[in-house]
Design a protein that fits this description.
Layout lengths: L1 E6 L2 E8 L5 E5 L4 E7 L4 H10 L1 H13 L13 E4 L2 E9 L5 E4 L3 E6 L5 H31 L5 E5 L6 E4 L4 E5 L7 H13 L8 H10 L3 H10 L10
Parallel strand pairs: 2-4, 6-8, 9-11
Antiparallel strand pairs: 1-2, 3-4, 5-6, 7-8, 10-11
Length: 238
């Protein structure tokens, strides 16, 4: 059951779930707020809890507003692009053959057909990003399946608007945001581990936190670093 409560100009989406504790979240890129509450929670109680956290909500929204944001990419010559946390210059080579991407130590070369649009160039790079992730993700999953004693039935790569990853506990599937290809690989590993722990504990409960503390003690540092990196310039309203 999902509803929306209004506190002044602030809208909060409230979802009632089979959980023990209230979870309040402020999501990038625009700072929208959600509140997950135990099934039996009265709406007035949820509202009172949100009001008590207004200072924290405003603080998180201010951080997102002030956080560095990547400029919108045009996919043109000598434009900056990031891969595994490193900055590369883009080189665009127009030729009448199948589009492709090549990487060297300083440059990403994008081979596209003459007159290709920025949207087409973006799609070519995105497919390349997915290919790079497919080279890395299975190894991370396999290593952590052994450590955690779980089995990932499948993983999926996609653009995600508000999350770095997600987990379908029932199906045993995890989803990974393709934007993570731009971040250092240890942050990709953190997101994968986070979602895999959800195969053991579905919610962000005290047990979930304890499991992360046990298996990935530096998770808080990884989360902070990930949240401090530039936000994607994706036009979220589209």
């Amino acid at each position: 059951m999902t509803t929306t409560i209004q506190i002044g100009e602030l809208s909060i989406r409230v979802t009632k779930k089979n959980i023990k504790n209230v979870h309040l979240s402020v999501h990038p890129p625009d700072g929208h707020v959600t509140l997950a509450a135990p099934t039996g929670t009265r709406l007035e109680v949820a509202r009172a809890y949100a009001i008590s956290k207004l200072g924290w909500i405003r603080e998180q929204q201010a951080k997102l507003k002030n956080q560095a944001r990547e400029t919108h990419r045009q996919f043109v010559e000598r434009e900056s692009h990031y891969l595994w946390g490193r900055r590369y210059l883009l080189s665009v080579n127009e030729q009448d053959r199948k589009p492709s991407v090549k990487l060297d130590h300083k440059r990403i070369t994008l081979n596209v057909r003459p007159g290709s649009s920025s949207e087409k160039r973006a799609d070519v790079l995105h497919e390349w990003h997915k290919a790079l992730l497919h080279q890395v993700v299975p190894g991370i999953i396999t290593a952590w399946e052994t450590k955690l004693g779980v089995k990932v039935a499948g993983y999926f790569l996609q653009r995600m608007k508000t999350k770095w990853g997600s987990c379908n506990h029932r199906a045993g599937h995890i989803r990974i945001n393709t934007e993570l290809v731009k971040k250092p690989k240890d942050l990709l590993e953190y997101v994968i581990v986070h979602e895999m722990v959800h195969l053991i504990e579905k919610t962000h409960s005290a047990r979930f936190v304890a499991l992360l503390d046990e298996y990935y003690p530096t998770w808080r540092e990884a989360r902070s670093e990930l949240n401090e990196l530039p936000l994607s310039a994706v036009r979220w309203g589209e």
